[in-house]
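Exam revision sheet. Question 4 asks you to relate a sequence to its structure. Input first:
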Amino acid sequence: MKRTHGLLRQLAQLAEQTIRMQSATRARTIRALATAGPTVIVGRGGVYATSDLPGGVHVRLVAPVESRVAHMAQQMNVPKETAAAEVRRLDRDREAFHRRYWPGQALLPEIFTATFNTAAATENQMVNCILALLPAGAAGSGGDRVGDVRGQSVARR
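Answer key, structure tokens:
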């Protein structure tokens, strides 16, 4: 019995080491992309990995649950009950990802440059606001049209 507990403890330690290595690798990859040139990073802790780099614009997109469910039902062409279950699953998965790979990092409003309620603004309005936040000389800041900005975090370098 003791041998089984020892093996389980070793497996748990190995799993924790793997998670730490994955987190470090993810952060290095995100930082490398962000420093390589104009980049859009969607979610995956981009705001944490790049918050100390100059020139980044970190955007959080939010919406009331009812709006998210209606949008999901339309996108998936399913009943609202099915869409609601999917929205709940996605929220659980995002929270689990955050806790696992960014433990101790609070998802505070002040770590984002801007937060948009997607139920209250059109995509074009949000894109125009984001373009206005880009550093002078950044790709797209001179009035170039940027399309299809989606996700939780946008960092453009």
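Marking note for examiners. The radius of gyration is 19 Å.
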